[in-house]
Amino acid sequence: MKLNLRMKVMLIPLGLVFLSTGLLMAMAILIQKHLWQDMLGDTSLAQSQLILDGLKRFLQHDAIDIGCIFLLVTAAAFIAAHFLINRLLANSLSRIVASIRSIAQGDYNYAPPAHEAKELRAIVSEVRKLARKLEERDRRIKQEIAERIQTEKELRTAKEEWEKTFHAINDVICIQDTDMKILRVNQAITTLFGLEQQDVVGRHCYEIFRGGLGVCPGCPTLAAIEDQKPHRTIMHHEARSKIFEVSVSPVLGEGNKLEGIVHIAKDITEQQRIETRVSHSHKIEAIGTLAGGIAHDFNNILSAILGYGELAKLRLPADNPATEDINGVIQAGHRARELVNQILAFSRKTDNARLPVHIQSIVKEAMKLIRASIPASIEFKLRFNAQYCNILADPSHVHQVIMNLATNAYHAMQEKGGTLSLSLKKTALMNHTISDLKAGLYVELEMSDTGQGILPEIKDKIFDPYFTTKELGKGTGLGLSVVHGIVKSYGGAITVDSQVGKGSTFRIYFPMIDMHPAEQRVADCEELSQTGTERIMFVDDETAILLYSKKTLEAFGYRVSSFTNGNAAWLAFRHQPDDFDLIITDMAMPAMTGMDLARKILRRRPGLPVILYTGHSETITKEKARAFGVSSFLMKPVTPSELLKTIRQLLDNKAAESSLPGQWSSGRQTAALPLQSPCLCGHDVRQLATGERV
Question: Theoretical Cys-Cys bridge with 609: which of 32, 175, 201, 650, CB 3.0 to 4.6 Å?
């Protein structure tokens, strides 16, 4: 059993007491022995015996007292030693231990013992030094711990933000090793491919994109592994009909050693579709611009053809055989005008308005255009049983429906050829015969092909916008959706029947109307007998139009001043503004447009009748022209009958206004002679040829 420090220190004085007492007793015994020896030597036996007996009695009677005295002395020494130890050592040591415990608990501002024994002061000094060192070390440790905690917090926050950003990116991001195995992938893999992240990690990237069919052709990852440079390419995901822009960047470590690959796949399917639509829109816009320019020039030519045709007819007797030929020329000119209007409408250069139309005529014209663009390997079969069927529609819309359906049929038969059949007929539908259609009379347009047909699983999707089964670059997915939208907007319906490998049949139902479309008629005598004697300014940069218009107007009594440009016309008007009762001007002219000329004239003579006409213009419309004070806006080609009728209406209206007090008078004079010539409109051939007025 080991003794502690307190016991060891207490045993020291106790041992000293016992040692000193034993020495004293030994000395006393030795002294007593010598005394007894001396006493026994000097005394007799009897006396010695008496001394020994006295010593026995002493030992017998006084030993207890001596033992008690010894014990008292020992106890006193023990108590004195204990007191001294507690006073000088134990208490000091306890205070030093308490200080050390305070230091151990982190209290470096303790009060060190001030009145310790000299021997303990060194311990206190060392404890103080140790406390300072521990305090400094503890401060550094706490600072390091705080910095480490802050660093770990920042790292944890940065990691969380990185993970949130990583998973928030819509593009598929794969971190791969050098063997093209996926080590990490973001959440976009679930959105685009329906796969969980744990199902992807450890697999090769081409297993995800190609279903394990091997490395993708033109894989940029292989190129990045080979030359350790970034690569980018466009890849098509066949299984999901998506297009991806794939970019691959190598991750290099020390010594430019390849450690991994960052693989980013961006879904650009919609972007490609938008770019295709924008490109298509640009093409349509370019075609429209070209069509507008062609229409402007062609309408000028048609104006001359129709004008001179009607003039030639006026110069012939009614029974002349050439009259029928001229009627054919005029009718062809009207058809050409309708064709130009359809081209402008198709290229969206004219306003779309629903009018009563013969659907058969529109279908025939559309099929003529389609026949010219589809190869002879595809046979056309047309059957029309709706000659007198009229619908309320925009001709360009019907034209677009035919074009889109025929284009789809052509693509279905492009490889092997076939037959494209189209038919028109009347049909009476009862309630619920076709969903969403009311009972009544309809025009049924049926178009069928002998192509590859439509798969049953996609039949319900063919009218969805941007849905297409064609190869990339061969379709926008808008054709059938546009057809569906047009037909629905007209209150009609469209149905489809198809068999894979045998072809498809589309049936479109347009509601019939009782109204009859306005037919182009050759001008009769009544329309061309709009005579007058007013003064007219005629401005057009086309000499042919200017000549026949001047002859026509003068033949009907008007006095015409003709000009080939706006500047000359404005100078003439500015010098004699009261010499003109009506202004007729072309819109598109060099130096000064017809609209600019009209504005100048109307500022000088407000209320003066002005007719503005053009073959095509994107900068002016009928509403804009009237807002600037133009009385009438006509589109070329303008026939003599239309021009004469418009002139007469404007002048008559002006004359009616001038009859009110304070109004300006047009000065119109009525034609002097009735029209009784055997010609169609009563004019003598010689008079018309010379331009003399009746």
Answer: 650
Q: Report d(CA 471, CA 460) in Å as an integer.
A: 20
The reply to whether 515 and 371 lie within a common domain is: yes
> Do residues 566 and 508 share a domain?
no
Please tell me the distance from the alpha carbon of residue 204 to that of residue 222, in angstroms, as a whole number: 12
CATH of the domain at 237: 3.30.450.20
Preceding amide of 456 cis, omega within 30: no
pLDDT exceeding 90 applies to what percent of the chain?
A: 8
Residue-level pLDDT at 563: 93
SS3 call for 243: strand
Per mean pLDDT, which range of 222-226, 482-486, 521-525 is the poorest? 521-525
Is residue 38 scored above 70 in pLDDT?
A: no
Give the SS3 label for residue 347: coil
* DSSP-based three-state secondary structure for 15: helix
Q: Are residues 530 and 632 located together in one domain of the fold?
A: yes
Q: Report the alpha-carbon distance of residue 469 to residue 334 in Å, rounded.
A: 41
If one counts every other C-beta atom within 10 angstroms of the C-beta of residue 267, the result is 19
Residue 615 belongs to a domain with what CATH number? Answer: 3.40.50.2300
Q: Report which residue type is found at 456.
A: P
- The tally of domains found in the chain comes to 4
Q: Which residues pair with 185 in a beta bridge?
A: 174
The residue assigned the tokens 């429906």 is 401
Q: Which residue range(s) make up the domain with 363?
A: 352-522
* Residue whose C-alpha is closest to residue 66's, from 16, 15, 32, 39: 32
Which of 267, 286, 310 is at the close of a domain? Answer: 267
Per-residue DSSP letter, 216: P
Q: How far apart are CA 577 and CA 450, in angstroms?
A: 70
Q: CATH number for the domain including 511? A: 3.30.565.10
Please write down the HEC assignment for all residues of 141-154.
Answer: HHHHHHHHHHHHHH
pLDDT at 536 over 90: yes
Phi first, then psi, for residue 154 (nearest 5°) are: -65, -40
Choosing from 158, 180, 201, the residue where a domain stops is 158
pLDDT at 256 > cutoff 60: yes
Q: Is residue 223 part of a domain?
A: yes
Average pLDDT over residues 443-449: 90
**348 touches 388 (CB < 8 A):** no
Whether residue 87 is found in the same domain as residue 190: no
- How far is 132 from 152, CA to CA, in rounded Å? 30
Structural tokens at position 603? 């500022």
Whether residues 555 and 618 share a domain: the answer is yes
Give the contacts of 406 (CB within 8 A, at least 6 positions apart): 366, 367, 370, 374, 420, 422, 447
**DSSP assignment of 268-332, as one string?**
-HHHHHHHHHHHHHHHHHHHHHHHHHHHHHHHHHHHHHHHHHHHHHHTSBTT-THHHHHHHHHHH
Are residue 657 and residue 640 in the same domain, yes or no?
Answer: yes
φ/ψ (deg, to 5) at 315: -80, -5
Please indicate, yes or no, whether residues 506 and 367 belong to a single structural domain of this protein.
yes
Q: For 86-118, how does the pLDDT look when each residue is reduced to its tens digit (9 = 90+)?
A: 666 666 677 777 777 777 776 766 666 655 555
Task: Cite the DSSP H helix spans in 214-268.
Answer: 220-227
165-203: b (≥16 Cβ within 10 Å) or e = eeeeeebbbbbbeeebebeebbbbbbebbeeeeeebeeb
Nearby residues of 191 by Cβ (< 8 Å), 6 or more positions away? 170
Task: Yes or no: say if 582 and 558 are a contact pair by the CB < 8 Å rule.
Answer: no
Total residues belonging to the chain: 694
pLDDT at res. 239:
65
* The token pair that represents 260 in the structure block: 């991994």
Indicate whether 139 and 3 sit together in one domain: yes
- Answer yes or no: is 184 within a domain: yes
Is 24 a domain residue?
Answer: yes
Q: Is residue 397 part of a domain?
A: yes
